[in-house]
Write a structure and sequence with these properties.
alpha+beta, 7-stranded mixed β-sheet, 6-stranded mixed β-sheet, 25 strands, about 25% helix, globular
């Protein structure tokens, strides 16, 4: 939903925190933008931000860390062609803002000095996908510690083989204000919370780990007894399953990926290759392939920043553009890329609401929000039953991808060996190796159980980290290479 009243309320909140205390007003922002554009640039923007963060961790019944931080500042950017001039400051005074604007102008300004009238401010349309609350204040400190203690108590009560429990709680209140050279003004108030649990189980001298957790853009009350119990069950079950795991076999084989978090493979192996900057430069395996078949029939991949309360969702992106539901691949055909403002302009297309940055101290670039594959018509049981000999991977750890070649390497944190459609035993040390574009073509069965992850994803790109979501249904991929330890 795109609504005016919450948009104006967010703008008022941002002004009260980021402008008024420092003697700044919208007219100051327009003057700073006027200074930057007076030497002829294609685009310019100001990005004000204040972030309050809190984190707690508990281990062996003891609070190991309790941290609280506040960070605020402004990023000042001018773009001319492909060249970006950028400066930032944690001082929000007018003098500092003007200095930054002059610095950026001197870096970017190749043309003649000229007078430019900055358009009158116009409020950007934005969505209302999550409450504009401060999640840090939704529970007091004693209640936060009690929540972590509950996690530990529940985990240890699940099974006597659980010997160690680590629990963490994080909350963030992020307020941003964006002013652009075209007169656009946008603001967002972004809550973000996350609860994590890691357990270590021991049996006959062997130790294995399991983890779980989740979160999103809401208050800490989300973590009620049912949610907490679900996280604990998953973490404990994962650790106990791995206690019985055998070395994974190696070779080319059928691989079935479970729903939800395994979509991180889709995110890494395919999603990054669909970001506008890599495609504009021709360095992605998907460059110049719009309208071509890049995946098996039935494969539809979306990047959607508009899902309510999701970790990867935004009311507006970090350039003030309204977020969108973008179809990237439809029934196997490549439909489009995800774009920030600069790459969209250089490629002659519209921005897609995917301009994101880690903070005011970073430049925006095209980044994913919630990236997922739509479901198909096969039941998960039917897909597993179709495996003659192969791997069923239900959870993943880390991975990496080479954007140019599309090649990826991923480690499965929980997987099973399957023969004749029957799960035989859990395996450990399985690594999936392949090419993202090639793997898309090898998808032969798509489950009807599409699920988004529980709200734990963080994506890294060029040294910047941003919260994201991933998702997919159960998938069968034929002929994937598995690196094992057997």
């Amino acid at each position: 939903m795109i609504a005016r009243e919450p948009t104006l309320a967010r703008l008022a909140t941002a002004e009260s925190l980021l402008l008024t205390p420092y003697g700044l007003s919208m007219s100051h922002l327009q003057r700073a933008l006027g200074e930057m554009t007076s030497h002829g640039v294609d685009d310019a923007d100001l990005y004000f931000q204040t972030t309050r963060s809190e984190g707690w961790s508990l281990e062996e019944g003891i609070v190991k860390t309790g941290s609280f931080s506040i960070d605020q500042g402004v990023g000042v950017r001018a773009v001319s062609g492909e060249k970006t001039a950028f400066a930032y400051s944690d001082d929000l005074s007018w003098d500092s803002l003007l200095d930054a604007a002059h610095t950026v102008r001197s870096i970017s300004g190749q043309g003649q000095s000229r007078k430019v009238r900055v358009p009158a401010a116009k409020t950007s349309k934005s969505r209302s996908l999550y409450p504009g609350l401060d999640p840090i204040g939704t529970l007091d400190s004693a209640a936060k510690i009690a929540l972590l203690e509950k996690v530990e108590k529940l985990a240890k009560a699940r099974d006597p083989r659980v010997v160690q429990v680590m629990a963490g709680l994080a909350a963030e209140h992020d307020v941003v204000l964006i002013a652009r050279a075209d007169g656009t003004v946008a603001a967002d108030v972004r809550p973000l919370v996350r609860l994590s649990v890691t357990v270590i189980a021991e049996q006959k001298g062997r130790r294995e780990m399991g983890s779980s957790g989740g979160g999103g853009r809401f208050g800490l009350a989300y973590f009620d007894d049912a949610v907490v119990s679900g996280y604990v069950d998953e973490a404990v079950q994962s650790a106990l399953t791995n206690l019985d795991a055998r070395p994974a076999p190696a070779g080319e084989m059928t691989v079935v990926l479970g729903p939800g978090w395994p979509g991180v493979l889709l995110h890494e192996a395919v999603g990054h290759g669909l970001e506008g900057d890599f495609n504009r430069k021709g360095s992605s395996a998907f460059s110049g392939r719009i309208g071509q078949r890049v995946a098996a029939k039935g494969v539809t991949v979306l990047d959607d920043g508009t899902i309510a309360d999701r970790r990867g969702s935004l009311n507006v992106d970090d350039e003030g553009c309204t977020t969108q539901k973008n179809v990237l691949i439809e029934d196997g055909i490549l439909k489009g890329y995800i774009q920030d403002a600069m790459n969209a302009r250089l490629m002659g297309v519209k921005p897609t609401g995917n301009g994101r940055r880690e903070s005011y101290a970073h430049v925006p670039m095209p980044r994913m929000t919630n990236t997922y594959m739509l479901g198909g018509d096969k039941s998960p049981d039917e897909i597993v039953a179709s495996i003659k000999k192969g791997l069923y991977a239900t959870n993943f750890g880390g991975g990496q991808v080479d954007i140019t070649s599309g090649k990826f390497v991923f480690s499965a944190s929980q997987a099973y060996w399957v023969e004749n459609g029957q799960i035989q035993y859990p395996v450990k040390g399985a690594t999936l190796v392949g090419s993202g574009p090639e793997s898309l073509k090898k998808i032969s069965m798509i489950g009807n159980d599409m699920r988004l992850d529980s709200g734990v994803g963080t994506c890294g790109k060029e040294g910047q980290s941003v919260p994201v979501g991933v998702g997919q249904p159960t998938l069968r991929i034929d002929g994937l290479t598995v690196g094992g330890t057997a």
